[in-house]
Write a structure and sequence with these properties.
The protein has nine helices and six strands. By secondary structure, the chain is α/β, with parallel strands linked by helices. The chain has a single domain, classed as Rossmann fold (3-Layer(aba) Sandwich). The strands form two sheets. It has a four-stranded parallel β-sheet with strand order 3-4-5-6, with helices on both faces. A two-stranded parallel sheet has the order 1-2. α4 links the parallel β3 and β4. α3 packs parallel to α4 and α7 crosses α8. The longest helix has 29 residues. It is globular and about 55 Å long. The structure holds nicotinamide-adenine-dinucleotide (NAD). The site of nicotinamide-adenine-dinucleotide has 28 residues, from α1, β1 and α7.
């Protein structure tokens, strides 16, 4: 479980634990990781930057040392990347967004897939975004990285399906969390509007007119990891209230 110390990742990890699963998380923030592990006895974790392949290797080795082979991989980490016009995006920010958002998922998958294939059992759940459907000006590295996450997911579903290893992606909409509040606050500041106004503009184009709670996403992840989803692979599943458009 990547990015498990906070927000959506933490709720997912806690719900897996509540269902009796052995859960290993990783996060780049040591303090948040320590706090989450303190609050969840039995859960284990590693401080790691998933954008660094050596860190990914360390996370997988520590998880395997704790619990043995990994049967469910949840690739939750995704950074927002720069908010800028194409011509103003620094090369370093482009590379970092691609490395953290899709490179890391590949690095985790290549390390856990051999055991899953051996056991002929496994589930991989990757986090994309509803913005791959609407597209999002000024967020090119993010949208491109998440489109790549979807291709990685669909290609893996074909390649791994004959080994009974499933791979699906979740496309969240507007999550009710700090990160989305920061994005809304930035847009409000840039455009000289109130944050409430920016948020209500977002909600106009969400069919259910509501934000997604981390628990909504966790329920879907648990379902996709479970035997109830034994025949579900190669799906890009939006959990978003149906984001019709984004501005
Ligand atoms: N927030 C939204 O509204 C929204 C919308 C659509 C899609 N998503 C996607 O959903 C997923 C979860 O989003 P979130 O809002 O909970 O994320 P978040 O920004 O709150 O981060 C979640 C956790 O990931 C950790 N993290 C960040 N970079 C890391 C790195 N390099 N290595 C290891 N850990 C790292 C953070 O410390 C944090 O604990 C992401 O893939 C995101 O792109 C989010």
């Amino acid at each position: 479980m990547t990015g498990g110390a906070d927000s959506v990742g933490r709720v997912i990890a806690e719900q897996f634990r509540a269902g009796g699963a052995l859960v290993h998380i990783c996060d780049v923030r040591a303090d948040a990781l320590a706090e989450t592990l303190r609050a969840n006895p039995g859960m284990t974790g590693t401080v790691a930057n998933v954008g660094k392949p050596d860190d990914v290797g360390r996370v997988v080795r520590e998880a395997e040392r704790q619990f043995g082979d990994i049967s469910v991989l949840v690739n939750n980490v995704g950074i927002a990347g720069p908010r800028a016009a194409i011509e103003d995006i620094p090369d370093e920010a482009w590379r970092e967004t691609l490395d953290v958002n899709v490179g890391a998922m590949f690095q985790f998958m290549k390390r856990v897939v051999p055991a899953m294939k051996r056991h002929r059992h496994g589930a991989i759940i990757n986090f994309s975004t509803g913005s791959t459907r609407t597209r999002l000006p000024m967020r090119t590295p993010y949208v491109v990285s998440k489109a790549a996450v979807e291709s990685l997911t669909l290609n893996a579903a074909r390649e791994l399906g004959p080994f009974n290893v499933r791979c699906n992606a979740i496309l969240p909409g507007m999550i009710d969390n700090d990160r989305m509040r920061r994005i809304v606050a930035n847009i409000a500041q840039e455009s000289g509007r109130a944050a409430e106004e920016v948020e209500s503009d977002y909600l106009k184009y969400i069919s259910l007119r509501s934000k997604v709670q981390p628990e909504d996403l966790a329920q879907t992840v648990l379902f996709l990891a479970s035997d109830a989803a034994a025949k579900i692979t190669g799906e890009l599943l939006a959990v978003s209230g149906n984001v019709e458009w984004e501005i």
